[in-house]
Amino acid sequence: MTLDAALKDYVHKNQETFLKDIARLSAQPSVSATHDGVEECALLVKKMIEEIGGTAKILRLDGAAPLVYGEVLRPGSDRTVLFYNHYDVQPVEPLELWKSPPFKPEIRDGRMYGRGVSDDKGQLVSRLKLIESYIKVDGTPPCNVKFCFEGEEEVGSPHLDKYVAKNEGLFKSDVVVWEYGNVDAKGRPVVGLGVKGMIYLELVVKTLNRDAHSMNAAALPNPVWRLVRLLSLIKDEKGHIKIPGWYDHIIGLSSDEIKVLREEPFDAEGLLATYAAKEFIGGMSAEEAKLALVAGPTANIAGIWAGYMGPGSKTVLPAEVHCKMDFRLVPGQVPDELFDSFTGYLASNGFSDVKIEKMTMEPAARTSYTSPWAQATVHAAREIFGVKPVIELSSAGTGPLYVFSRRYGADAVDIGFAPHDDAIHAPNENIRVDYLEKGMLWIGEAIEEYLAGARPKG
Ligand SMILES: [Zn+2]
Asked: Contact, 322 vs 304, CB < 8 A?
């Protein structure tokens, strides 16, 4: 254990005040989907950074929610840790399912309930209050600290990369503490090391200028048949993506990471049972499914619509069909290159008439398990929680982790104190009050272990 006793004592004694701060920030609505309260919340976040002794400013971009930047420097330190969090929240509907009002946080049976208490205001405050504790006890944070608190995470962070590009110097950092981490059902802290990337697009196939009577199907082309043929070119029955070059630059898992993956828990039966699925794609084994979820690219059809979809029958030959697809990407895959390869592949197969609209283009990011920052967080988890943590080499989902790693080479880890059943994005979102202290100490211990192992720069 590297943390000093005075700091631990301060964090312990002030839990009640810290919880009040989580409640205070969570009481301020900030629904990015509707813009409700976002501006007011940004101002409150800025104020809260200033209250702990940091400097803060609000950055703006046209059409974007404000981004709150803050910093507390340590004189003489050559290391910088950046905390990325978001102050926006998901909508609260359906309101009738909440046992207490979503924007009036309330503690019941050892949990605090309210929108944002876990995702992500509780996490945000836990970081702020950790740094405040250092300032109160030592007069300074353990190293230079930067806060990047955005207001659009829940709508896909459409401007985060632009904000960072416009203010390059400001966000420069060595390591990043990502926004949300959790403790699993067995009380084991989860270290998240990566996310997948994504290409999201919409295909439109149009063969007629208006819908026709279906008797014309004898002679006129149907766009849905055309789409079906197109889609069959994308993936085979085993799940292999057939677009040329799709797998060419993938950075696979290292032998250390494969070892970690083998040891990590994966409830294959549970996953199948949850969806009443008979088997994984192409009959793959549980081990193969686990690997695919962590390190495999996907080509998913998210929605298709055309023609008549109402009750009874309508004999119609639709003029056009729409199809939305998401492709999850893994490290090494470059979204723009893959998109070009996809359009080229369709054109070379006679589908150059198909309209393709790009919606999301996000690369993947994965922090190496053997990197000093990952190792520090893993070791610190063991110290603080007293159990072996769960290592999630990569989430099967997507997020803007690449923003800092690509630009600064800053490794990011997702660590925090959310309970596994915190109901984020749903009614009765909550945190476990007793996890807050451990979550804060985990981050403190991780930073100190990282700093202890870091060689001076230059
Ligand atoms: Zn969320």
From this structure: yes
